[in-house]
Each structure stands twice: as C-alpha cells, then as structure tokens.
Specification:
Elements lengths: L13 E4 L5 E6 L5 H10 L2 H8 L8 H8 L6 E10 L2 E12 L5 E8 L8 H15 L4 E7 L3 H10 L2 E4 L6 E7 L17
Parallel strand pairs: 5-6
Antiparallel strand pairs: 1-2, 2-3, 3-4, 4-5, 6-8, 7-8
Length: 195
C-alpha cells in the first residue's frame, strides 16, 4: 500500500521561547521522524509511558510507530516540539488528534518529557492542536486518562475540558471540550485554549 499525505502544513511550524528562554521548534510530524519519535518515547519514564498509553510499553510496536509518524494532517495531526543541541535535534513533546470515523469528534493525546514539564509546553501544544482541529471541522475533542494522572487532569481542567469518571471503566476519566467553528490559527492568541 502506498502512503499518501496531504500537503505538508508548513504554516503550523512555529518557533517559541519558553519562560526560561529556551528556544523550541513546534512542527507537524513527518514520516521520516520515526527515529526521533522512538527516541522520545524511550526517554519517557515507565510511569509516564503508562500514563500516556494506559498500559506498560517498553517500545512502540512498528505498526503503532508508522501510525504515529504517517499522518494525513487533516483527520490525523501530530505536532512535535523539538530542541537542537550539539548539532542534534531531539523531540521533547508531542501532541496529536485523530478524528473518529464518520464523526465531528477527535481524540487527543499530549506527552511531554519530564525535564520539560511545568513550562506550559503541554498547554501550548494542546492549544495549537485544538485550533487546527477546529479549522479542520472537528467540533469536539475528547480523551481518556487514568484517574491517577494528575498532570493531565490539571492540564484538561485549565484548558476548559469537562472531566468525569467513565461509567464503564473504573479509574478512567473522560475528558471533553467543544470547539468553536473554523477560525484562523496563526498564534497562541487565536487558540480556543489561549489563557
């Protein structure tokens, strides 16, 4: 099967400075980012990987890695945040949404490497993701997290998500937020999650 993508959304490339002055590049993932993505998920602690996938994973299976890096930028968008040091690039965070089939809903996920947490990077990525999703016709973003994942629950609460326990799975929290209609997404102020 040949993989086909829509036009690469170069307009989503952004260079931001975090509160500590660190320069971070945010861009849509590319199919050739498999090694960077593998290194990012390997760098996460076992508890962080468990929070992200709600299961113990030491390595991402090859099929999942392909799905993470081969996105169509419309129904599935993944953004990576990266830094450059010593002539090498490293992914320090990723965020994505995947539209549910035949739906105006999309599921989202955000992961930030532990040394980069607490710098508003997750909020920034989630805002950019929600803004792009709204521009692509998504009307609601949803997610699931463990009730013990205090960082994700705090992020969702600050972003305006409704948070409720799953009626079907004990210890699982459901996250949901309606998105406004299509709008420009040129900067953080345009984001529906701008704080």
């Amino acid at each position: 099967m040949t993989y086909q993508i829509h036009r690469y959304p170069a307009e989503l490339i952004d260079v931001v400075r975090l509160g500590d002055g660190e320069r971070v590049v945010i861009r849509p993932v590319l199919p050739q980012d498999e090694d960077l993505t593998t290194a990012f998920f390997r760098s996460l602690s076992a508890p962080a990987r468990y929070d992200r996938f709600m299961t113990s994973l030491r390595e991402l299976p090859p099929e999942l890695m392909r799905r993470f890096t081969q996105v169509d930028y419309a129904d599935h968008l993944a953004l990576v945040a990266e830094v450059f040091s010593g002539g090498r690039e490293s992914v320090i965070a990723e965020a994505r949404y995947v539209r549910r089939p035949n739906s105006l809903d999309a599921e989202f996920a955000v992961s930030v490497a532990e040394p980069w947490q607490g710098k508003r990077l997750a909020s920034l990525l989630l805002g950019k993701l929600a803004c792009r999703a709204a521009a692509m016709g998504v009307r609601r973003i949803v997610g699931e997290t463990l009730a013990t994942n205090a960082k994700m629950i705090s992020l969702a609460r600050k972003a305006g998500f409704t948070i409720q326990p799953s009626p079907e799975v004990r210890g699982l929290m459901l996250l949901e937020m309606a998105l406004p209609g299509s709008q420009p997404c040129n900067d953080a102020e345009a984001s529906p999650l701008a704080a």
